[in-house]
Design a protein that fits this description.
The complex is a heterodimer of chains A (about 110) and B (about 110). Chain A is an all-beta fold and about 110 residues long. Chain A contains no helices and 11 strands. The chains are: A mainly beta (about 110), B mainly beta (about 110).
Chain lengths: ~110, ~110
């Protein structure tokens, strides 16, 4: 079974803090994604990566950056957290036939 | 603008009822996915469709490419089917676009 794990299920940070969300997959997938999920808006793509050190902006990249130094690990970074970044963050990886596998999610609260 | 619309937003059913959730999209697609999200957040993929119909247990997914519409059916619904069901489409390239989800509650 494909496993996608995320570093935290719940996280509380203060405004202005730098926040790191980590995602690890164990199936050697090249493609990995970071989404945020907000009520009434569905999942929206922040960034994706199609290979080590390669990244593409999604629909809402402002205020976020990403890092992919190893194939299995994709990190989302909030350089200076703000209250409007309070959300559920979901990581996913994708196989060659476009099946997506999601992590359990991190519920981030910025106070 | 690429759009994915789901209906209904919320659905309450009695155990045993036949359930239909709908998804419409605005332009031609490469594939459509149905996903299930249980309370607590985890999302699992139920189906990936590019044409026709697929069945897995009590779940059936259909797609009509000409009408740009897909349906997810649940036969003999059960309280454990209570979840949010999400439609996602892929046009071309790597990106998926998601509907806002249908929250299903099945009452015993």
């Amino acid at each position: 079974d494909v496993k996608v794990t995320q570093s935290s299920r719940y996280l509380v940070k203060r405004t202005g803090e730098k926040v790191f969300l980590e995602c690890v997959q164990d199936m050697d997938h090249e493609n990995m994604f970071w989404y945020r999920q907000d009520p009434g808006l569905g999942l929206r793509l922040i960034y994706f990566s199609y290979d080590v050190k390669m990244k593409e902006k999604g629909d809402i990249p402002e205020g976020y950056s990403v890092s992919r130094e190893k194939k299995e690990r994709f990190s989302l970074i909030l350089e200076s957290a703000s209250t409007n970044q309070t959300s559920m963050y979901l990581c996913a990886s994708r196989d060659r036939v476009y099946e997506q596998y999601f992590g359990p999610g991190t519920r981030l609260t910025v106070t | 603008k690429n759009e994915v619309e789901q209906s209904p937003q919320n659905l309450t059913a009695q155990e045993g009822e036949f359930i239909t959730i709908n998804c419409s999209y605005s332009v031609g697609i490469s594939a459509l996915h149905w996903l299930q999200q249980h309370p607590g957040g985890g999302i699992v993929s139920l189906f990936m469709l590019s044409s026709g119909k697929k069945k897995h247990g009590r779940l059936i997914a259909t797609i009509n490419i000409q009408e740009k519409h897909s349906s997810l059916h649940i036969t003999a619904s059960h309280p454990r089917d209570s979840a949010v069901y999400i439609c996602a489409v892929r046009w071309s390239g790597n990106q998926f676009y998601f509907g806002t989800g249908t929250s299903l509650t099945v009452i015993p």
